[in-house]
Amino acid sequence: MSDSDLPRSPFAGLADFSARPPVRVLSRDEIERMLADHRLYLETEYHQGHRANFASTDLSGRDFLGLNLRGIRMDRAVLRGTDFTGAQLQRATLIGVISPEARFDGADLSGARLSGANLVAASLENACLAKADMEFALMAKVRLQGACLREADMSGAQLDGAVLTRVDLQKANLRGAGFRNARLDEADLRGARLDEADLRGARLGGAFLVGASLRGADLRGAYLRSAKLDGADLSDANLYDAEGLTQTQLDLAQLSSGTKLPEDL
After folding, report:
1. How does pLDDT run across 28-44, given as a tens digit for each residue?
2. What is the Cα–Cα distance from 75 to 89, expressed in whole angstroms?
């Protein structure tokens, strides 16, 4: 898939990540030396060594499995197929990275900055992304089963066809995000903000949407059987053709005159 064919966030026009400096190519020895300096930087609590800066560097296919990369800088790096399984990436800077099909399974990315990142078809199963900044990220077909995204900012992110079963998205900012045909079964979305989100055809069976805001959200054709909607704000939301939705669920939610309901409700 070429970059021009990638799906775009519905908010993509609000941010420009297109201007990229030339990509650097480093030798294996240079990379190892920079990682050693970074390790010393962390071990001495920033008194020795240097924070590694791999900005605009091609690290495709590299293996960073289990490494302590806390606070590392990789803005706009090329990380196609790179393996970060189990890595410590707390507060790392990964703005605008190109990392389709990269592996972050079990990695700790809490507080990391991933705005504008291309994570199409990447794997982040059981990863921690609590309070991460992920605005406008391209995450179509990403695998996030069991991940923690509590209080993450994913406004305008594109997650069409993504797998987010049993994900913790409590109090996450998902305003304007795209979830077309995504799987959010049993996801914890309590207190999340999903205003203007595109959830057409999404599967939300058994999802916890208690106290969530879905003002103006598009839920046409979404699957909502057993979803918990207690106190959820569905003002002006479009629920036309939603499946599995009952009047009992709606009675517990907040509706407005602009809420569009299935024809049988």
Report:
1. 999 999 999 999 999 99
2. 13
